[in-house]
Amino acid sequence: MNSRLRQLFLFGLLVLGAAPIRAQGNGPAGHGARATALGNASATLSNEVWAGANNAAGLGTLTRPTAGAYFENRYLITSLNVAAVALALPLGIVEPAAAGQPARAEWGVVGFEAQRFGGALYSEVRVGAAYGYRLGVVNIGGRLDMLQVSFRDLGSRRALVGSLGGQAEVVPGHLTFGVYLYNLNQAKLADYQDERVPTVLRAGLAYRAGKQVLVLVESEKDIEHDVGFKAGLEYLPASAVALRAGYASLSQQTTGGVGVKTGNFQFDYAAGWHSVLGLSQFLSINWQWERKP
């Protein structure tokens, strides 16, 4: 199949909403190469800027301002590219860790993200604001998106999408439960056939077997499609290096990646492989800095 036919084939599948291989489909997209390398089992991930996209509750443990950039290419086709930038800002003073609880920002953490997916035929643009707060052993959070979906020659549609999430330490320091409901308001894109943004519920567990190993399992249910399962494994051979692997049943994709931390910067790379569609690549760069008193 030549590149032009391959592009049209994939675009047709995307428009038809074929769940196993859709790239974005205006549903929740896992962002940050760390999450992607872990099979997008990200409902329990916290303390990073991309929690604002993956589960806003995870922003609650972030204590330093952080900015990030994310780039994604699926199946080596430019019309399936994703680009995103994100910013997270702790509010108020940072309360130090105490009584076995991590440090937290006094008034929680606010996050902002802008992302674009697609090419000339079809594209999605969304701008979102998120908020996360730490309360004891629980993180709670929410996000509001302005989503614009555009078809060439057919115009654009816009919708407001609201999402809520939570995380709880079942066994502090070892076992965490996370849940995230995307599009709780069931936002409508068009009156024709009552077209709506997908409503998706994700729930997962994270088990930390010591300081070096993190195991993730997660289920995902779109109300109009079958349930899917995800799994991820992260291993830290050194404090500044992470090796990752994952699998997602809905996308039928095996993933792997590496993360390196140097100074205030975090570099993450991931690659995914689909047995029919081939290679996808993902890259994110995060920068943290100290707040002025």
Automatic annotation (TrEMBL):
Keywords: Signal
Signal peptide: 1-23
Protein name in the entry: PorV/PorQ family protein
Organism name: Hymenobacter bucti
Lineage start: Bacteria, Pseudomonadati, Bacteroidota, Cytophagia, Cytophagales
